[in-house]
Write a structure and sequence with these properties.
The protein is mainly beta. It is built from three helices and 16 strands. The longest helix has 20 residues.
Length: about 400
């Protein structure tokens, strides 16, 4: 990772020098794209500072998790007065995997639209194991964002059998799994602002553009999410769901919403190169309902040998879900003065999934398992930036 970042920084430096000497070259074109102002933006509505090298320090807080509930009904036999009676009773297992509060700090170096860097967790660990990666390109009117999370954490469970305490099989257990569960999640977002004339989405989130007067825009949005939930096959909670140890969901959503920049105050700089005299405070609120047009859920079951040792796994079922609604919300603020800015971003993601898995225990009249759940993520990021 360090070698990769060093190579990228060297590449940018070489590109800047080459662009200054040979504007017609392809390197010059890249540098021109990184630093050039957006010609579509009205200069009276959006101020575009000259591109400069800058350093950003970040502080991040977040929580990521998943809640999953598996419901089923099964048949049992009881004896009454010498007679064996079959009866059916319901059951459900609710699993909750959530990291504790994640606290991280980072440092980034950038030029124009581009920035590169890294961050690390500080303080108490948010999970037994935790890996994450993110990358984004955010301009005034469009953006691409990618993020990946891999979290290992014990799972809270809630097992309920029977209708009430009068059932002979009634049981209600709550606790924590002996072995950690695993949550993996990949998210790709793309958005486009319809108003490319007087609205700069990046004003409240990147500081690369300065909104001079309040404006809003309809936002076109698409999202792809892939998530995987895994339980240890030797943990008792996997036996409650017919040894289903993996659930993998993928879904694609599209939607349209609205984003609005509220400019509390603005003072134009006296020098565009140094931004001396600049004063600006901008708030943004973005809300986008999403229609999940495609949803796919697959599950896998552990395979045991005669000694009850796990020897592999097999795919149990796949389910294509019908369309349903999800939602995304984001808020941000940015205060700029001279060559500095301070920004705060808060966003929330919540995406549901559902499906059905055929049982492998037909001899016990164990009916199909219906599963539904929800991934959730909230994140707050504080940025302090200095251009030089």
């Amino acid at each position: 990772m360090k070698k990769t970042l060093l190579f990228l920084f060297c590449f940018i430096g070489v590109a800047v020098s080459a662009g200054a000497q040979e504007k017609a070259s392809w390197l010059g074109g890249i540098i021109d794209w990184i630093g050039r102002p957006n010609p579509k933006l009205d200069s009276l509505a959006v101020y575009q500072p000259a591109p400069r090298w800058n350093v950003t320090l970040t502080g991040t807080g977040r929580q990521i998790g998943v809640m999953q509930k598996s419901s089923f009904s099964t048949m049992s036999v009881k004896e009454e007065n010498g007679t064996f009676i079959e009866f059916t009773y319901p059951g459900s297992v609710k699993l909750d995997l959530q990291e504790k509060m994640y606290r991280g700090v980072g440092a980034y170096v950038g030029y124009g639209k581009l920035s590169l860097g890294m961050s690390t967790e500080i303080g108490r660990k948010s999970a037994q194991k935790n890996r994450s990666f993110s990358f984004d390109i955010v301009s005034s009117g469009y953006g691409l964002q990618f993020s990946y999370y891999d979290i290992w954490q014990p799972m809270e469970y809630d097992l309920l059998l029977g209708n009430d305490e009068t059932d002979p099989v009634y049981a209600h257990r709550q606790g924590t799994s002996y072995e950690p569960g695993n949550l993996k999640m990949f998210i790709a977002d793309a958005f486009y602002a319809v108003n490319q004339h007087s609205f700069a989405y990046s004003a409240a989130y990147k500081g690369s553009k300065i909104q001079r007067r309040s404006a809003g825009s309809i936002m076109l949005y698409s999202k792809y999410l892939q998530g995987k939930i895994s339980t240890d096959p030797m943990d008792v909670i996997s036996s409650w769901t017919d040894h289903l140890i993996h659930y993998t969901t993928s879904q694609f959503s599209v939607g349209a919403g609205y984003s609005y920049n509220l400019v509390a105050f603005h003072r134009q700089p006296v020098d565009r190169q140094t931004n001396r005299g600049l004063r600006n405070l901008t708030f943004n609120v973005t809300a986008i309902p999403l229609l999940t047009a495609y949803g796919h859920l697959s599950s896998s079951r552990a395979v045991f040998n005669e000694e009850r040792v796990v020897v592999g796994e097999e795919r149990s079922s796949t389910t294509n879900s019908s369309a349903w609604l999800n939602f995304e919300a984001r808020a941000g603020m940015c205060y700029s003065w001279n060559q500095f800015f301070v920004g705060l971003t808060v966003d929330y993601d919540s995406f549901s999934f559902q499906g059905k898995t055929e049982s492998s225990r037909e001899e016990l009249d164990f009916e199909d398992i219906k599963t539904n759940g929800r991934f959730h993520k909230w994140m707050a990021v504080l940025r302090v930036n200095m251009a030089f």
